[in-house]
Amino acid sequence: MDFIHVHQHNKLQRRQFIKVAGLSGISFLLGGCGTPAFEDLVGKLSEPLNQKFENLIFNSQKPVSEFSLSEIEPKALIVNTFRDTPIIDTEKYRLIVDGEVNNPLSLSMAEIQALPQTSMIIRHVCVEGWAAIVQWGGIRLREIVALAQPKANVQYAYFKSADGYYESWDLASVLHPQTLLAYQKNGQPLPVDNGAPLRLASPIKLGYKQSKWVTKISLVSYLPPFKGYWEDRGYEWFAGL
Ligand SMILES: Nc1nc2c(c(=O)[nH]1)N[C@H]1C(S)=C(S)[C@@H](COP(=O)(O)O)O[C@H]1N2
Ligand SMILES: [Mo]
């Protein structure tokens, strides 16, 4: 009886935290999905995040104001890819989340799309002198980070893409409520040239920070010598908007 009481108490605290922090993981916790692996994953969600992450989420930057549906510029987003568009089998695709985490993840697109979806209309800004107002739909990156249960020493996220592109971000920007892993663009499934099955989208970073075809996210305490494809060619690392 005592055990049950304590367990429910923890669950409640977790629920309250999720509510206050704007994490909506509880909704899919109640929704369920069926596969045993997915239930394992969801079970882990009842563990609290460590204090450092809770503080970063509570104190995260103010949301950037968004545009309205009528302001979307459907033709303005120019495909900008340093190599050819990679070929990815969406059925076999897995997003790997590893590094200094207690719960490494390997998620299919079906599992990612079962997580709470959000959308935003923001301006994408490329340093090459163009911009586009786009609607992105997907999962908040911080929900995926929370599922992976990062250790307190994590400072950065390192992103690998299927075309050989790579990027790294500071943790506060990773946990920003408008930093998404997007699988929709302007209300439609994300086109492959724009990064399907999964890409970064955020109103707080320049275009080159927004990796397309993300296959792996490593949560790390130090930055490797290769910080980002364009950064290693002289562009600024933080690249905030
Ligand atoms: N994997 C990968 N991601 C990438 C790039 C790339 O070449 N490869 N280019 C970046 C740049 S410079 C920009 S402006 C945006 C362009 O996104 P879009 O092609 O969907 O318009 O993707 C960014 N992400
Ligand atoms: Mo760009």
Automatic annotation (TrEMBL):
The protein's matches in InterPro entries, at most eight in alphabetical order, are given as:
OxRdtase_Mopterin-bd_dom, OxRdtase_Mopterin-bd_sf, TAT_signal
Q: Name one Pfam family in it.
A: Oxidored_molyb
Span of domain Oxidoreductase molybdopterin-binding: 84-221
Q: Which PROSITE patterns does the protein's record reference?
A: TAT
User: What name appears for this protein in its UniProt entry?
Assistant: Oxidoreductase
